[in-house]
Design goal:
Layout (H helix, E strand, L loop, with lengths): L1 H22 L3 H19 L8 E5 L6 E10 L8 E3 H7 L8 E5 L5 H30 L5 E10 L2 E5 L4 E4 L15 E10 L6 E5 L3 H11 L1 H4 L3 E9 L3 E8 L6 H6 L4 H9 L4 E6 L4 H8 L5 E6 L5 E6 L4 H5 L4 H10 L2 E6 H51 L1
Parallel strand pairs: 2-3, 11-12, 14-15
Antiparallel strand pairs: 1-2, 2-4, 5-6, 5-8, 6-7, 8-9, 10-11, 13-14
């Protein structure tokens, strides 16, 4: 009978270890959880057994369960169930001192069987909580990174995606316009945010976020991953076009060439992943004029005039470059403005020259107006002086 009991205890230990390995949960955490659950079971089922201040210990090798009552050593005993005098404690062990805790085994008969039934629900709940916590930590570490998912189903515009250990939803706002998602498609997603939730981690993902482009370049371009080339800014209109500004910390490494790759293979892999979204790779510069001019690529810029008020500038291009600089429905200049952080007003050379001419004519008109006013004022002053002189003469004649 004893051998059967030991065997049963061994099975409990093996079961706990199997659960820990399967769920990725710490064995010690499971043992501590089971001990806490058995303390609760003892207090519930053995309420009349004396002290309710107890400790449960499960042997990590054999699975043997023991319950110990805990009594603190005090000078004057007020509650014999939870307290013990120093004199009585020293009879048990002379090394005891005041405020030490004296333990005494009080394991009831058949406690393991009774406690196991009561503890099952608590342990199950704690395992679920641990699983959710582990899952949250796993995905929280991947926040602002990319992850591969498998399309499961569509419902009211939402795409439900299996991430392996949990599921997430790609909302219509985070889907690339025109992109078609089929069952079992493998797609890369950018993790925007991971929140803790009673039912498990809430993972917000996107296919439209600029961060997706950034991570794709980091994976495709070793120079970016190694920190030789930096991504300084990104502006994106998902499904249509992206502008990315790059800079090299090594004078021997050309940043744009590194991103394009041999025969354009690196950037083409990213374009393919983004379903043929156009990507403009431009060189970043600390000089705002140069940066703004580069950002308007593929248009050629003649001049960039920084305005006095705010982050505003005027850009001049050849007449035949105006539509290219502005882009279809203003997309090129809009993305350039987002990329640089400047308000950009684009003028063709002819428009700018006409503007300068009108400004010069206006200034001339102002000067002529000012001169006319000065002449008028001088004339009025002269007339007034003559009137005063005539008045003085008349007064002199009158007195004579």
């Amino acid at each position: 009978m004893a051998k059967a009991t030991v065997k049963k205890k061994d099975e409990v230990i093996l079961a706990l270890k199997a659960i820990a390995e399967e769920k990725g949960i710490s064995e010690e955490m499971l043992f501590e959880t089971l001990e806490d659950a058995m303390i609760a079971a003892y207090k519930k089922n053995y309420v009349n057994s004396g002290s309710q201040n107890v400790r449960v210990n499960i042997d990590r090798e054999t699975g043997e369960i023991k319950v110990f009552s805990l009594r603190r050593i005090v000078e004057e005993v007020m509650d014999p169930q939870d307290e013990i005098s120093l004199e009585e404690a020293k009879e048990i062990d002379p090394r005891y001192e005041l405020l030490d805790v004296v333990e005494n085994e009080v394991t009831p008969a058949n406690f393991a069987r009774v406690a196991a039934q009561s503890a099952k629900q608590i342990v199950t709940q704690r395992i679920k909580e641990a699983e959710r916590s582990i899952l949250y930590n796993q995905y929280h570490e991947k926040e602002f990174d990319v992850i591969m998912g498998t399309v499961q189903r569509k419902d009211k515009g939402n795409i439900y995606i299996d991430l392996g250990k949990t599921e997430t939803v790609l909302t219509p706002q985070e889907q690339i316009p025109g992109e078609n998602y089929q069952f079992n498609d493998k797609i890369l997603l950018y993790i925007v945010e991971v929140k803790q939730n009673p039912k498990g981690p809430m993972i917000s993902v996107s296919r439209t976020h600029p961060g997706l482009v950034k991570r794709l370049f980091e994976k495709e371009v070793p120079e970016i991953y190694e920190g030789i080339v930096e991504i300084k800014a990104i502006s994106r209109e998902a499904g249509s076009r992206t502008k990315i500004a790059v800079y090299s910390n090594d004078s021997e490494v050309e940043p744009m060439g590194a991103c394009v790759g041999p025969r354009g293979t690196r950037v083409q892999n990213i374009v393919n992943e983004l379903r043929n979204e156009k990507i403009d790779i431009i060189k970043w510069s600390k000089d705002p004029k140069e940066f703004i001019a580069n950002a308007l690529s593929p248009a050629k810029v003649l001049d960039v005039i920084i305005m006095n008020e705010g982050n505003a500038c005027k850009v001049v291009v050849e007449d035949n470059q105006l539509s290219l600089a502005i882009g279809k429905e203003g997309q090129n200049v809009r993305l350039a403005a987002k990329l640089t952080g400047w308000k950009i007003d684009i003028k063709s050379k002819k428009q700018y020259e006409q503007e300068l001419l009108e400004k010069a004519e206006l200034e001339e008109d102002v000067i002529r107006t000012e001169e006319a006013l000065e002449d008028a004022v001088a004339e009025e002053a002269e007339t007034a002086a003559e009137l005063i002189e005539d008045t003085d003469i008349q007064e002199e004649d009158s007195e004579a």
